[in-house]
Amino acid sequence: MTAPSFPRSSRLARPHGFAIGIAAAALLFVWGATSANSADTAARPNILWITSEDNSPYLGCYGDPLAHTPHLDRLAAQGVRYRHAFANAPVCSTARTTLITGMYACSLGAHHHRSRVRIPATFPLYPLPLREAGYYCTNNSKTDYNLADAGKPWDESSPRAHYRNRQSGQPFFAIFNLTTSHESQVAPKAGKDPASYRVPPDKIVLPPYHPDTPEIRLDWANYYDQMTRMDEQAGALLAELEQAGLADETIVFYYSDHGGALPRGKRNLHDSGTRVPLIVRVPEPWADWTPARPGQWTDQLVSFVDLPATLLSLAGVPIPKNYEGWAFLGAQRAAPRKHVFLYRGRMDERYDTSRAVRDRQFRYIRNYSPHRPWGQPYSYPFQVLPSMRSWHAAFLADQCNPVQARYWGPKPAEEMYDVAADPFEIHNLIDDPAHAARRAEMQRTLRDELIATRDTGFIPEGMFARLAGDKTIYEYAHSDAYPIGRIVDTADKASSRDVAVLPELMAAMDDPHPVIRYWGAVGCLVLQDRAAAAKTKLTALLADDWGDIRVATAEAFGYLGEPDTALDTLVAVLDSQEEYEVLAALNALDFLQAAGKVPLGRMQDPLKSREFAETPNRIAKYLLGKGT
User: Fold this and answer.
1) Paired residues of 276 in beta bridges
2) Crossing angle for the helix pair 436-453 and 484-494, to the nearest 10 degrees
3) Are the beta carbons of 615 and 582 closer than 8 angstroms?
């Protein structure tokens, strides 16, 4: 059967969603929310999502010569491989929040890892419209949403959840999440026989950004073993579907939740952290919806925000108007994307704000925290990854070449890579005059995305509750009270490292809006001692009513030769009742001490007599452990 296609206009030209065309509405009348027992399975496909964790396209069918993934390779031969599929965020909770809401997490304020953010009650999580249309929806079993209250969107969500529990004849949507390739499984277990690695560690071809250490080679070798185990689990799920006689009635997706688990993969906005494998197998009744024949590739750009819209499109269910993704399959499929939008915020206890756009050839990144390194001392990967500890030790021992050392140093304000020619994203083209036109185009595209989504990532996390009041941060950001254009312009200047914009940063510090003042202070922090002319303006901000502004200002004073002012201000913030202001202050103390601006003992003394909430406590323990 051939389904009509309804191209959607560019999302940048519309705030949210779109109205379904008359022809699509007619299809929905035929396919719509009839009872499960009367559903026509030829018109209402079952849909199975098999997801794995923390892996880039390390698959044989994606051309990885070290991979042994025969089951997923077979699925690829039966389906379509997406060459340009991306998680919008390079960490599980933010990626999954994007999926479950059908919206960019930074639109909702839910982009910080393991946060708990309220969203408008009228925004449906995607299983709800599916269930209303008669689908049986199961999740086996990870949720990990950055939402204060996700409710109970699933018919079943547990390690026992399964489509077999549906009513007879009822169409199903089911997720099975495989954890075998997760970051926590990368390191070989104690006692693993060195001869048991399928790929011997000395045969691993390391990416150029990794130093050649035994620990890194062992982690890579073990990771390939874990990928093979994951493939076996995926194969078992596919065999189970065939044994149940459902393969010809079920559209199958396989994808990973973000990029690879080894250092500089997960948590990073480069391809190593955001590009994912995506294979879609569509049975014959719906074959006309696919962009290529079985076994072929498609170069169509897709990202996670598109998956819920696509799911509903395949099921014949109207796409909620607030959804920000574009359906790439089904009756409501849109014209292909020209780029995808990517983002990162706080990862565990460490703050870092970056945004990016990626097309088929180039990636452009804007680092709004250029004073922070890519490789911050996150507690979790340092705990579970010998490769992370080994890389950091090699850096401290001056055993890294410039490409490898770059991960542990301050970031450039902007990055641009020709990923087609430079797949490891080593050569930053941002100042290359040959690419000036492309750079300007991608800068405009990113700004358009930030404005269209009214990106909440420019608001310090400690300001969320107070600014939102009794509403959600999404509602605040979509009100006239949030001057997103001025804020983006100020943040661009603040992150530029250009001392010529210091007068504009000083003017920002007088602005009545706290987010503008915050970015004025951050700009001085980024400039460090080159911001000396702003010292009088900064002094006034030490008494600002907003804790995040005082934190950024205090850290700036540390680089202006006033450690006592910095330390006294930051210690005072530690007594705040606002968890995320405290977290920002602890981060500032850490980086000031690491830069030699605050003595170790003076930084540690105030921490010994205080108790902290769970996330700040991770960094407090790290700070108290320094020097031991």
Assistant:
1) 85
2) 140
3) no
